[in-house]
Design brief:
The chain is mostly beta strands and 571 residues long. It has a 10-stranded parallel beta sheet with strand order 15-16-19-22-25-28-31-34-37-39, with helices on one face. The longest helix has 22 residues.
């Protein structure tokens, strides 16, 4: 072979090797080389942030004066056809990571970057971002509606606000109730300038959902939603303010009246200035005017003469224990150790005791007490928080001589209570009302979060001390324990040792750190008659911080599935 040909062969081989070596080098080594035209940006990394922003970075290109970023909406294939929906010029490398804002939600975006030279003819080619799976980025649904504050809620509507500075023209709001559309409002240029829209014409004391939509050329996207409940229509309720004479207001009210309490602490004081009882002998309801600044009833309630009582968004506080300086200044006075509610008169029929979304706290003896031979048709605690009820001298839900036809505990959070007493006590006084066939009773405990109730492992008490009726085979009891999340229960006798407790129907309950509820402990000496053998024992706490009353669910098996045991407020 001639020398010239040999040299050409070696040169070609060396050139080929150089290309391969360059391919194997890192991106930053490539960008340090000098070419007649800038290299296209590499090492591009992008991600969606805060639902509708895209955060993007890339490797610095040697010689680049600045960079241009373009984003194309509804481009799931990196076609980059037409004009970019977003084009940002003069981005310096020092500006990275750069965040593209103001994008639409629920939209595919193709993103590309160009390096800009001092002479435009030397600008780089575009380079596009692709995820590792070959997909482009997709923004999430927006959430620009702000929480509806109490001050913005009226009896027939609410003021709906969104994040300041965002444009909402070509947007509309849909209002739904129980999943059905009841109102639709197109937002105007004036609404856009104001940053809010006022809704009206809705029903009082009703729960609504508002959803903000934006119309695009080829689709409609959601920009967020919020729930709110309209306020009490004070035209139908009696307004009550701190310092008013509640006894006199109740005495003057018509049967069936609703008392609307403004924020504050309400006491019922004796002539000596001690905390006495609110006596109610007519059907009446207590409701807070403001959901997030609730009225506090600092006292106990005696129900007389067959009176029904309902409460919503009220705090019932027995003020047991050491009061803070602030509480004393606010007017809190410790109660005498009674239960929150007591039915006082015998030979009466009480139709209803119902608490909805209330808080019950710091009482000594218990929550409710039936020690008179009267019939109570229905007792309901729904979506309440009940805590720090000592149960000294009584049980948590305590029926001694009364006949409660239906006791329903649903969606409540109950904690730090009844350490050494029964969760439910229901004694046998059936002979005062009839017989087993004419006096059926139903106890339903469903979707409750129950934590640190019955924690004294030396106490020979029960979860359910139910003795209604005489012979087990003919007891008219229906007892349902379903979808509950129970933690820290340690009473020796578990659910029950009573042969007169009807067969409990268990379903989908979960337990953490409990004793004798799912199965009987090996060292147990009590004659436990029922356990939840179908229940599930958890190996770790399902709560974020139970010690500080934060029962937010951290168990992923619950949060990622349709199975939501316990109270819904913690999901």
């Amino acid at each position: 072979m001639k020398l010239k040909n040999i040299l050409m062969f070696v040169g070609a081989t060396t050139a080929a090797y150089s290309v391969v070596a360059c391919d194997d080098d890192r991106d930053d080594e490539l960008t340090s080389m000098t070419y007649s035209r800038l290299l296209a940006p590499v090492g591009i990394d992008a991600s969606v942030r805060n639902s509708t922003n895209i955060r993007i970075t890339w490797t610095e290109v040697n010689g680049a004066e600045s960079y241009i970023v373009e984003a194309f909406a509804n481009d799931s294939t990196n076609a980059f056809s037409g004009t970019a929906d977003v084009r940002i010029e003069d981005i310096l490398f020092e500006d990275l990571p750069y965040t593209i804002t103001g994008l639409d939600g629920e939209t595919y975006y193709a993103v590309r970057v160009m390096a800009v030279a001092s002479e435009s003819s030397k600008n780089s080619k575009w380079n596009a971002y692709l995820k590792s799976d070959g997909e482009v980025l997709k923004t999430s649904g927006e959430s620009i509606l702000l929480s509806v504050s109490d001050e913005d809620i009226t009896s027939d509507g609410a003021t709906i606000r969104w994040t300041s500075g965002l444009t909402v023209t070509s947007n509309y709001i849909v209002v739904t109730k129980d999943g059905e559309e009841v109102k639709r409002v197109t937002l105007t240029a004036e609404d856009n300038e104001n940053g809010y829209v006022v809704l009206s014409g809705l029903n009082s004391e009703s729960t609504y959902k508002v959803i903000l939509y934006k119309e695009l050329t080829d689709k409609t996207i959601s920009r967020g939603s919020q729930n709110f409940k309209t306020a009490i229509d004070l035209g139908n309720a009696i307004p009550v303010n701190p310092g008013d004479d509640i006894k006199q207001i109740i005495a003057d009210a018509e049967d069936g009246a609703t008392l609307a309490f403004y924020p504050g602490v309400y006491n019922i004081l004796s002539d000596e200035g001690e905390n006495s009882k609110i006596e109610i002998s007519k059907n009446i309801a207590f409701k807070s005017v403001r959901a997030t600044d609730r009225a506090v009833i600092n006292g106990c309630i005696h129900l007389l003469a067959g009176a029904s009582f309902e409460a919503e968004k009220i705090v019932f506080d027995g003020a047991k224990g050491e009061l803070s300086e602030e509480e004393v200044e606010a007017g809190y006075i410790a109660t005498d150790g009674s239960q929150v509610f007591e039915w006082k008169d015998a030979d009466m029929t009480y139709v209803l005791l119902k608490l909805t979304d209330c808080e019950v706290m710091r009482y000594t003896k218990g929550v409710c007490y039936g020690n008179a031979a009267s019939t109570i048709n229905e007792v309901v605690f729904d979506n309440c928080i009940i805590h720090d009820i000592e149960c000294s001298g009584g049980d948590l839900f305590d029926c001694r001589k009364s006949y409660i036809k239906e006791l329903t505990l649903v969606n409540n959070t109950i904690y730090n209570s009844a350490a050494a007493r029964s969760f439910i006590r229901y004694d046998n006084n059936i002979s005062a009302f009839g017989d087993e066939n004419t006096c059926p009773t139903t106890i339903t405990i469903e979707n409750n979060t129950i934590c640190n109730v019955g924690t004294d492992d030396t106490s020979t008490q029960y979860f359910m001390y139910v003795r209604w009726g005489n012979v087990k085979e003919s007891i008219p009891q229906t007892i349902i324990v379903k979808n509950n999340l129970i933690s820290g229960f340690k009473l020796k006798r578990g659910y029950t040792t009573q042969k007169t407790t009807g067969e409990i129907t268990f379903s989908n309950n979960y337990y953490y750190d409990c004793l004798n509820l799912v199965s009987i402990a090996a060292d147990n000496t009590e004659a436990i008659t029922q356990t939840d053998s179908e229940g599930t024992e958890l190996g770790a706490t399902p709560f974020r911080d139970a010690a500080n009353a934060d029962f937010t669910i951290v168990n992923e098996d619950f949060t990622t599935s349709d199975n939501h045991p316990g109270a819904s407020r913690w999901y």
